[in-house]
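ARCHIVE CARD
CATEGORY: sequence design from structure
SOURCE FIELD: tokenized fold
FIELD CONTENT:
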């Protein structure tokens, strides 16, 4: 288990705890370089297989990190980032340092929430009116939002929202209020997630 599997990047304050981690590991810890820290666990490969179980564990560990020590901002990595040595990982932190710093500043104290609206069968929906109403309800509370793919004919809206953690309750209430007004729609409200949709730092595993 000499390789390092990366969940994301935080400020250099040390994150360390025992938990169920990817590929059977049982401890998460930080490898730091100049005020940045990669949160990792040990793994025996640099090309981990993305099983449903480990994909869920990856997300669960990210949530634990977000809750760590009263709240920790993390730039999340997609599943599968693994490095053969601490040195290789520190080289990545060094090379991408400005991008990580910008991303940490952009998402500090914020969470990602997801909203999907699905029309009931055999109902007609004015998609544009729904989009406008959702925007009026939610955009004033969210820091940012992004549109995601409408992968089904019945999917009316699919958006991710970056929300300050202090505004979570207000956002929940706005979603609930919208849901109460729309029996013709199934509301699928998910999160909190690490803010995948609002960071764009690409690194190569080694």
């Amino acid at each position: 288990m000499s390789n390092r599997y990366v969940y994301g990047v935080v400020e250099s304050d040390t994150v360390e705890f025992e938990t169920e981690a990817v590929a059977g590991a049982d401890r998460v810890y930080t490898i730091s370089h100049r005020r940045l820290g990669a949160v990792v666990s040990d793994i025996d490969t640099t090309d981990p297989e993305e099983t449903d179980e480990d994909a869920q564990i990856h997300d669960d560990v990210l949530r634990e990190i977000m809750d760590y020590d009263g709240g920790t901002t993390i730039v999340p990595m997609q599943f599968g980032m693994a490095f053969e040595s601490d040195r290789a990982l520190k080289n990545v932190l060094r090379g991408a340092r400005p991008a990580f710093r910008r991303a940490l500043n952009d998402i500090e104290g914020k969470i990602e929430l997801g909203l999907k609206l699905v029309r009931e069968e055999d109902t007609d929906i004015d998609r544009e009116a729904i989009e406008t109403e959702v925007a009026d309800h939610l955009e004033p509370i969210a820091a940012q939002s992004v549109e995601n793919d409408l992968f089904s004919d019945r999917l009316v809206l699919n958006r991710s929202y970056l929300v300050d953690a202090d505004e979570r309750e207000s956002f929940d209430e706005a979603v609930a209020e919208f849901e109460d007004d729309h029996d013709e729609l199934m509301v699928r409200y998910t999160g909190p997630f690490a803010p995948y949709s609002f960071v764009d730092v690409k690194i190569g595993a080694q």
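CARD ANNOTATION: The two ends are 15 Å apart (CA to CA). The chain has a mean pLDDT of 92.
SHELF: design records, drawer C
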